[in-house]
Specification:
366 residues; alpha/beta; 3-stranded parallel sheet; 12 helices
């Protein structure tokens, strides 16, 4: 089963987008521009040609290689442009593997996405120099990927590469919009309320199982995995048929969701599955709704208690539930305007808040 895995360090993402190099126009010089230079030039030109305002919003997503996800991202950019008319809006991928695969045209027509450092540098170039830069995380939980977003801003603010005008950095206003489930009370309860408003009928008809990503146990930055448990508890105040599992959180795989269902006496009936991710990409199409099936008169769990090489759809089907293509709700959270609005509210809060204390004030406390 395909799973997009994290790369070793965040800055690797800035060094890949397409596998090519270009030679200098000066044949005598015989100089070869490295990919970093090529990508930075491409982003610089994009920003310069599209700049309309003095302020800018950079949306940072992990990334994807699915057309449905690209459509969701495009719709989100359009929604931001409509809601924030005084700002230019750009989209960035933080995953190097997604950047590479998108450029190679895996699953879809090739598209170029670039890592956040390229965009931040472009925002500071001569002829642009935005007075305010708002970086909006499109992550769901404040975990490992959100940490990378914070570090991008820190490196930019500290002029890590030494290629930005220090006087500009001393005067530019930086803002950071937090992930969907940043706050353990306000955000969790608001997301639960809106999801219940969308899926009340399904929860009356059967189980609604949301599939989040989760952080691996060793990378559970800020202990963000607890948001999934908190969200399940908040949802179950509306209906006990709501459950929230993950593909990468220890102790909260689909097998553990089944255990909790049985503990509630739910041993049969429909199981609706829904990605609890910003987009319906590789995990949604394969880990949740795919046809991978390791059933052989039973399943063998690994040492973590997970059944590998089997989608949620096929797993719950073999466990005796009605779970098939008709019960797959294949929509990412950015495709749901009510949920997307919460990210946009976080952006408004960032804009209306104090200039960014990009470390202390943006890390969750619980």
């Amino acid at each position: 089963m395909k799973k997009i895995k994290f790369l070793m360090i965040a800055m690797m993402a800035i060094c890949v987008a397409m596998n090519f190099t270009a030679c200098s126009d000066d044949d005598d010089d015989n100089t070869i521009d490295n990919n970093y230079t090529i990508y930075q030039k491409a982003v610089n030109e994009t920003v310069k040609s599209q700049k309309k305002n003095s302020k800018v919003i950079l949306l940072v997503a992990f990334g994807s290689t699915w057309q449905q996800a690209y459509d969701a991202f495009d719709t989100t950019v359009d929604a931001y442009k409509a809601a924030f008319p005084g700002y230019d809006v750009f989209l960035s991928f933080s995953s190097a593997i997604c950047i590479n695969r998108a450029a190679a045209g895996e699953n879809v027509k090739p598209r170029n996405f670039y890592a956040p450092p390229f965009w931040l540098t472009a925002f500071a170039q001569d002829g642009v120099k935005y007075s305010e830069i708002v970086v909006q995380s499109l992550q769901v939980i404040p975990g490992e990927e959100y940490t990378r977003v914070i570090n991008y801003i820190k490196d930019f603010a500290n002029n890590a590469n030494g290629d930005i005008d220090d006087q500009y950095l001393a005067n530019v206003t930086l803002k950071l919009g937090v992930p969907l489930l940043q706050d353990a009370v306000k955000d969790v309860n608001e997301v639960a309320t809106r999801l219940n408003g969308l899926y009340t009928n399904q929860a009356k008809d059967g189980v609604v199982a949301f599939m989040g990503h989760g952080n691996p146990d060793s990378y559970d930055t800020y202990k963000a995995n607890v948001r999934y448990t908190q969200l399940e508890n908040a949802l179950q105040k509306f209906n006990k048929n709501y459950f929230v599992g993950t593909v990468d959180m220890m102790g909260n795989f689909k097998t553990h969701v089944l255990q909790r269902m049985k503990a509630f006496g739910i041993t049969s009936g429909k199981v609706y599955c829904h990605p609890l991710m910003s987009i319906d990409g590789d995990h949604g199409h394969n880990d949740m709704a795919g046809d991978d099936d390791a059933w052989d008169n039973g399943f063998e769990e690994n040492e973590e208690g997970e059944v590998e090489d089997t989608s949620w759809k096929m797993y719950f089907h073999h466990m005796g539930y009605t779970c098939d293509n008709s019960t797959m709700i294949e929509k990412g959270l950015l495709e749901l305007p009510a949920i997307r609005q919460i990210w946009m509210d976080h952006t408004k809060d960032a804009i209306n808040g104090e200039p960014l204390d990009y470390y202390h004030s943006k890390n969750p406390e619980e």
